[in-house]
C-alpha cells in the first residue's frame, strides 16, 4: 500500500537548519509530484513547497522562499526539504503529500524553532 514516512524533525534554535526527508513506497514515486505542507498549532495546513515528478519545476510559499530547498531522489523514492535560517514562525508539523487517485499524507514530523 501507499506509504509516506517523514523524518528529520526536531528542536532547533532560530537561525538553525534541519533537513526533512519523505520516503515513499507502494507506488511509482518518479511519476508523481510531491508537496510539502505544514500545520502550526491552531492554524490551517499550508503548502510550503512543490516539486514535479522529475524535479523540473519547483515552487515555494513566499514565507519560505530563499530559505527552504525542496529536492527529490527518484532512485531512493525520497523527497527532501532543506530548511535554513529557521524562524520561530516555522514551528509546525511538516507533512509530505502525493496525489494519486486520492491524497496520501505521511504521519508528519514536528519542527520546533525555539531559543
What are the defining features of this structure?
115 residues, mainly beta, seven-stranded mixed β-sheet, four-stranded antiparallel β-sheet, 51% strand, globular
Structure report:
This protein is an all-beta fold. It is globular, with a radius of gyration of 13 Å. It has strands spanning 3-7, 10-12, 18-25, 34-39, 46-51, 58-60, 68-73, 78-83, 92-99, 103-105, 109-113. It is 0% helix and 51% strand.
Per DSSP E runs of 2 or more residues, the count of β-strands stands at 11
Q: Helix tally?
A: 0
Largest sheet: 7 strands, mixed
Could you estimate the helical fraction of the residues in percent?
under 10%
Order of helices and strands: EEEEEEEEEEE
Low-confidence stretches: none
pLDDT averaged residue by residue: 97
Q: How many angstroms does the end-to-end distance come to? A: 40 Å
Determine the structural class based on helices, strands and strand pairing: mainly beta
The radius of gyration is 13 Å
Shape type: globular
Indicate the proportion of strand residues.
over 45%
Note the topology.
Blueprint: E1 3-7, E2 10-12, E3 18-25, E4 34-39, E5 46-51, E6 58-60, E7 68-73, E8 78-83, E9 92-99, E10 103-105, E11 109-113
Parallel strand pairs: 2-11
Antiparallel strand pairs: 1-3, 3-8, 4-5, 4-9, 5-6, 7-8, 9-10, 9-11
Question: What's this model, at a glance?
Answer:
The protein is 0% helix and 51% strand. The protein is mostly beta strands and 115 residues long. The model has no long low-confidence stretch (mean pLDDT 97).
Amino acid at each position: 500500500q501507499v506509504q509516506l514516512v517523514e523524518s528529520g524533525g526536531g528542536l532547533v534554535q532560530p537561525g538553525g537548519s534541519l533537513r526533512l526527508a519523505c520516503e515513499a513506497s507502494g507506488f511509482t514515486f518518479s511519476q508523481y509530484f510531491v508537496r510539502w505542507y505544514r500545520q502550526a498549532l491552531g492554524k490551517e495546513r499550508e503548502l510550503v513547497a512543490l516539486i514535479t515528478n522529475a524535479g523540473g519545476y519547483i515552487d515555494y510559499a513566499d514565507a519560505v522562499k530563499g530559505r527552504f530547498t525542496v529536492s527529490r531522489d527518484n532512485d531512493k523514492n525520497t523527497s527532501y526539504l532543506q530548511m535554513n535560517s529557521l524562524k520561530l514562525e516555522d514551528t509546525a508539523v511538516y507533512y509530505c503529500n502525493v496525489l494519486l487517485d486520492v491524497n496520501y499524507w505521511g504521519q508528519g514530523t514536528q519542527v520546533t524553532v525555539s531559543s
